Amino acid sequence: MRLGLALGYWGRGPDKTHLDLATEAENLGYDSVWTAEAWGSDAFTPLTWIAAHTSRIRLGTAIAQMAARTPTATAMHALTLDHLSGGRMMLGLGLSGPQVVEGWYGRPFPASPLTATREYVDVIRQVLRREGPVTLDGRFHRHPYRGADGTGIGKPLKPITHPLRADLPLLLGAEGPKNIAQTTRIADGWLPLYWSPTRTDAYRASLAELPEGFMIAPMARAKVCDDVAEGLLPVKAMLGFYIGGMAHAARNFHADLMARMGYEEEARRIQELFLAGRREEAVLAVPDAFADEISLIGPRERIAERLDLWRKGPVTDLLLTAPDPHTLRVLAELNN
Fold it and tell me: What's the superkingdom here (predicted)?
């Protein structure tokens, strides 16, 4: 099982520790470093900055939002950074949800998410292969565009720049069972939002037919500390926000996922509290057990025992949201 460093997206401003953490991860032998985006900083610019200050560690977006860019624009970002980094780029993509897509990006959330994802990936694959002009008569993505509001003179094109790799790894951040199953067919890897090494049955049917070399790369917060309860507080704060406030009450993929993992009643209670403006109570309502099983928190010996559980499953890459160099170093030692 390879280790990666997941830096996430910025909050109020740039996090000055990110570059130091990325270079430390490379020095410790970590395989990859990942950036993200929500509705603030983008995923590609910080990753390019990190690429310029490193030489070996692989570079991934976890995740870049599909609604933020057309698939050809996303492919341009990926092939450009792949060239600049000497072939270290991995492209992680996700649909996000209706509130973000329609509220932030000002476009409709696709009525058929699986079809929209499949078309998006198809276009990117065509750009990277560069076997001919990009063409797709899709429901959501049409190349060239032939809508009634267009000019009708769009020309099929292929990229001027020759991509460095036609097989640049493409991963998807899928949550629903059908979306996960499709991911195993059209992508090179899957970026689970929550992964519990003790509840792998939740994904068994979706992962029934894994192709050779397929990456499963969940994120988990890691923190070496003496007080487990205190160490879990940031995990619970994250879960309270994602489960309670990261989507509409009637359509929250994150809450649905928590429910499928055995915490349905708790997920709905977190939503209820968060949407009522009782955010602190929502965070406290997150079960310690759930926060604990999807993270690696506590003294070194405890983390070592729990890390063995992650190794025994199908996870190929464990992406750690580790807040300090000491934790990075301990996990590197334990994983050797």
Answer: Bacteria
Q: How far apart are CA 305 and CA 293, in angstroms?
A: 12
The answer to whether 48 and 32 have CB atoms below 8 angstroms apart is no
In 3D space, the residue among 84, 237, 108, 73 whose CA is nearest the CA of residue 93 turns out to be: 73
Residue pair 235/297 in contact by the 8 Å Cβ criterion: yes
User: Do 98 and 40 meet the contact criterion of CB atoms below 8 Å apart?
Assistant: no
> Which helix H or strand E contains 17, and what residues bound it?
none
DSSP state of 263: I
Please say whether the beta carbons of 171 and 215 come within 8 A.
yes
Q: Is the pTM of this model over 0.85?
A: yes
Structure tokens at 249: 């009450």
Cα Dmax for the chain: 65
| Apex 208 CA angle, 206 and 213, nearest 5 | 100
Q: What is the DSSP string of 128-185?
A: HH-SS---EE-SS-EES---TTS-S-------SSPPS-TT--EEE---SHHHHHHHHH
Map residue 232 onto helix, strand or coil.
Answer: helix
Amino acid at 169: P
The closest of 139, 135, 136 to 110, measured between CA atoms, is: 139
Q: Is 87 left (phi over 0), alpha (psi -120 to 50) or beta?
A: left
pLDDT per residue as tens digits for the range 247-292: 555 667 778 888 888 888 888 889 888 888 888 888 888 999 999 9
Please give the DSSP secondary-structure letter assigned to residue 201.
G
Q: Say whether 196 sits in a helix, a strand or coil.
A: coil
